[in-house]
Amino acid sequence: MTPHTKKLIATTLVILVWLPAYAIFITGLYWRLFPPGTPWFADLLFYAVAGTLWIVPIGLALPWMYREPSQK
User: Are 50 and 26 in contact (CB under 8 A)?
Assistant: First the structure.
C-alpha cells in the first residue's frame, strides 16, 4: 500500500469516524458522571484529560501511515 493511500485511509477514518464517535462518547460520559452543580474544577479536569486522550489512536496511526511499503 502506498503512503498516499495510507494517509487517505487514516485521515478519512479519523475525521469521519473517530472524532465524532469520541466526541459523542465523551459528552455522554460527562452527563453520566457529572450531575448539574458539579464544581468547575472537576469539569476542567475531566475535559483536560478527555481533550488529551483523543490523540492516542491518532498517535498510533502515525507510524503506520509513514512506514515504508514492504518489499516483496
Answer: yes
Q: What is residue 34's DSSP assignment?
A: -
pLDDT averaged over every residue in the chain = 87
pTM, full prediction:
0.73
% of the chain at pLDDT higher than 70: 97
Average pLDDT over residues 34-40: 91
Q: How far is CA 60 from CA 46, 51, 55, 64, in A?
A: 23, 16, 9, 7
Domain ranges of the chain: 3-66
Instruction: Give, in order, the Cα–Cα distances in Å from 52 to each of 39, 57, 58, 63, 70.
Output: 21, 11, 11, 19, 32
